[in-house]
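Sequence of Reverse transcriptase domain-containing protein (Mytilus galloprovincialis).
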Amino acid sequence: MRQRNRIHYKAKNTNNCIHWQKFRELRNEVIDLVRQSKEQYKQKLTKEITDKNIPPGKWWRIVKSISKLSKSREPTPFLKSEGQIFLHPVNKAELLNSHFSNISKIDIEPELPNNVPDPPFKMEEIIITEEEVLDQLKNLNCNKPSGPDGVSPRILKEIKSGETLRIIPSQGAEQFHIIKVSYHLLLNSGMN
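Predicted 3D structure, token representation.
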């Protein structure tokens, strides 16, 4: 690129046909090299995105860089409905939600069959051993977000006792607070 720029400067100053010809050749060569580099970069990103072993954080960084999701955008314009103007994002979201929920309502309810036979088989009781749970906890990725229960994967990975693990599903959110407290106590006491 520097060589192309030097030849371009020389061609402008001398206005010599030979210099202009050399500039065009170098310009075309640089354009081809830039295109090749862009294509190689796109192929590299595609390969990384389709890799199943890529960590979620890196995957999202690549997606954001490609789609420019992290760039600031202009705020959405105001919405007007029934003579009212909505400026706040929450009000706009509620207006759009109500609009689309009204559109998607189906007035005709399907008729249910009267005589539905029982399924041919019943699901047997699922037995999960403590070892299976501990194996899954060992393989748990701490960088993933919390699940719908709000329990962080890091907390689950740090807690190794099976007794505590059995209590978690039986008591739900109340037990979650107890686990968090004991987890912070473990960290503060220096015990692992």
